[in-house]
Automatic annotation (TrEMBL):
It comes from the Bacteria. Keywords: Metal-binding, Oxidoreductase, Zinc. Its cofactor is Zn(2+). CDD domains: Zn_ADH9. InterPro entries: ADH-like_C, ADH-like_N, ADH_Zn_CS, ER, GroES-like_sf, NAD(P)-bd_dom_sf, Zn_alcohol_dh. Residues 11-316 form the Enoyl reductase (ER) domain. Belongs to the zinc-containing alcohol dehydrogenase family. Gene3D superfamilies: Medium-chain alcohol dehydrogenases, catalytic domain, NAD(P)-binding Rossmann-like Domain. This is Threonine dehydrogenase.
Length: 319
């Protein structure tokens, strides 16, 4: 048996005892060390019309890392005892199952470090889709975990990053990850004027929206210069969006939805993330600001929603 979190209803988590899953052919079982809490968890936590309750045991958890403790038939790439990050989907539990093709062995340089591979891999895939070039001005709207990592990647690529976020703590974080300019996200038209002033009215060659709400998407369109690229990295899952097609048409901008669902691309981003962190090119340690045991998953979800103090990302850890 194992402990697992079940989303019983909006705003209510139960910790239950369920049977430990068994790996099928081609699968591995992971004894979960930890799992990140994703902002995409917040809509199910709040309750949406399309959700059904209760959810699966361990459901919502998809940012896991841990030790392989069993392998299914035909798996020869992993052995019990291997430490891995995996793309799995029921990781708010002591054990989870992943396809062997959707896991990566973590090198010794990452021993004892948390490694929520899914969001780190997402950041690298978004960065690739953004096609950021040296000398460009890049606005990043929303500086949480994803925005901070992208700030670092864009700065290292030779771009000038303008970080835009609501909280002063987030803007200080962005400075620490290389942002050249920071703007408080509090007034739509003032932000536009500030970016005009910073760019000689040319606006930005690249704008990455990392919030997943209507206003940041509106703002992103305004900040994208003629012939630029608007990259939608925020996860918009709470309903339809309206966009200014007249403005998008007039500016001739490219609009990229940077959420990858091709498993090969997902794994490419994960491999790049492992190499970058293990090699010291990216240090995400400062982004893991809050840790909770499984029994306090509700608090972790609330903190992800409310962002108290210096909050960036919550991790649920075991043992």
């Amino acid at each position: 048996m194992m402990r697992a979190a079940v989303l019983e209803a909006p705003g209510r988590i139960a910790i239950t005892q369920v049977e430990k899953p068994e790996p099928a052919p081609g699968e591995i079982r992971i004894r979960v060390e930890g799992c990140g809490v994703c902002a995409s968890n917040l809509e199910p936590w709040a309750g949406q019309e399309w959700m059904s309750y209760p959810g699966e045991a361990g459901g919502l958890g998809h940012e896991a890392w841990g030790m392989v403790d069993a392998v299914g038939e035909g798996v020869d790439a992993f052995s019990p005892g291997d430490r891995v990050a995996a793309l799995s989907y029921r990781a708010f539990a002591e054990y989870d199952i992943a396809s062997a093709g959707m896991a990566i062995r973590l090198p010794a340089a990452l021993d004892s470090q948390p490694f929520p591979g899914e969001p780190l891999g997402c950041a690298f895939n978004i960065f690739r889709r953004s096609d950021i070039q040296p000398g460009q001005t890049v606005a990043i709207i929303g500086i949480g975990f994803l925005g901070a990592v992208l700030t670092k990647l864009a700065t290292d690529a030779g771009a000038r990053v303008i970080a835009i976020s609501r909280r002063r703590e987030s803007l200080e974080l962005a400075k620490g990850y290389g942002a050249a300019e920071v703007i408080v996200m509090d007034d739509h038209w003032r932000i536009i004027e500030d970016v005009k002033a910073l760019t000689g009215e040319a606006m930005c060659e690249r704008v990455i929206e990392c919030v997943g709400k209507q206003w940041p998407l509106d703002l992103a369109g305004e900040l994208t210069g003629f012939g630029g690229r608007l990259v939608v990295a925020g996860y918009h899952q709470d309903g339809p969006r309206q966009v200014s097609m007249q403005m998008w048409n007039w500016k001739g901008i490219d609009v990229i939805n940077a959420h990858e669902r091709d498993p090969r691309v997902q794994m490419q981003g994960l491999r790049e993330a492992v190499d970058a962190v293990a090699g010291g090119r990216l240090d995400p340690t400062a982004l893991y600001t809050h840790r909770y045991p499984l029994e306090r998953l509700s608090e972790a979800l609330d903190a992800t929603r409310d962002k108290p103090g210096n909050f960036v990302k919550a991790l649920v850890t075991f043992g």
